[in-house]
UniProtKB/TrEMBL annotation:
Protein name: ABC transporter ATP-binding protein
Listed PROSITE patterns: ABC_TRANSPORTER_1, ABC_TRANSPORTER_2
Family annotation (CDD domains): ABC_DR_subfamily_A
Magnesium found in the keyword field: no
Stored Pfam families: ABC_tran
UniProt-listed SMART domains: AAA
ABC transporter domain span: 8-237
GO molecular function: ATP binding; ATP hydrolysis activity
InterPro entries assigned to the protein according to its UniProt record, in alphabetical order: AAA+_ATPase, ABC_transporter-like_ATP-bd, ABC_transporter-like_CS, P-loop_NTPase
Keywords noted in UniProt: ATP-binding, Nucleotide-binding
Amino acid sequence: MSDGELVIKARGLTKRFGDFTAVDSLDLSVQRSEVFGFLGPNGCGKSTTIRMLCGLLLPSAGEIEVLGYKIPQDAEALKRRIGYMTQKFSLYEDLSVIENLQFLAAVQGLGKAAARARIDELLQRYWLTDIHQQLAGTLSGGQRQRLALAGAVLHKPDLLLLDEPTSAVDPQSRREFWDSLFELADAGTTLLVSTHYMDEAERCMRLGFLDAGKLVATGSPTELMDNLPGQALILDCQQPRQVQACLRDCPGVLATAQIGKALRILIDSTDAQETVQQHLKQANISVQIQPTEANLEDVFVYVTHKPAGAAS
């Protein structure tokens, strides 16, 4: 990957709040027109990283280059080239849909004719035409989300940063939202999205997993699942709750989850399967064990359980 293809390049990016290190020596590269997903536990540094990338937060150390701009030195110039959508609805609830977009167009310096044409286009594209006179504060979660996206892309940004944008909407709205994101990517917009949803993560072109402020794994969803050192197992058993309790302190078991009448477990290596069998045998518990394909939730659990820096 050459630097000429990179929209985001961060090296040694660090942010400290007093004695607490929120982001720790993070290296990140995102290519043009890529849909890059950020995943990690709450408090792992996703939002802090995004805020530094768009110039809203000063880094404690490291170098950032976004769309060729040095951050924070060129943060003001960068603002005209990026869009930023947060988890919390940040538009004016006492203004109508169209008034919010008209206000944002004025802030972005769009002329009246250009603003009118762009707003009409976005109202139609994001199914807002019929509610354009409705107050933003009365919109449903999905409608607010579509309005927020329209506002974020009003000025046709080259880069769109989205911080858990679908946390308050239903599955159908999330699917429609992601269809809109891929339309933007097809048109050349680069997207960096943080999410807690594994089905959304699977739709990203590449992923970065953060844990305790460190980037502990990167790659496409397929690469990450195929290269998972651990192993997922399905345990067919009569009393899954009893088996789950038995395995709680079993060496090598990273996670357990009941799936109907079966138990899905994640072990840290294929060698741990024998340990699981012996552990259950000693407890006089009989089960049928079958390996199963890894999913992104397994990757999430594995990389956030490993010692910092041990994952690739």
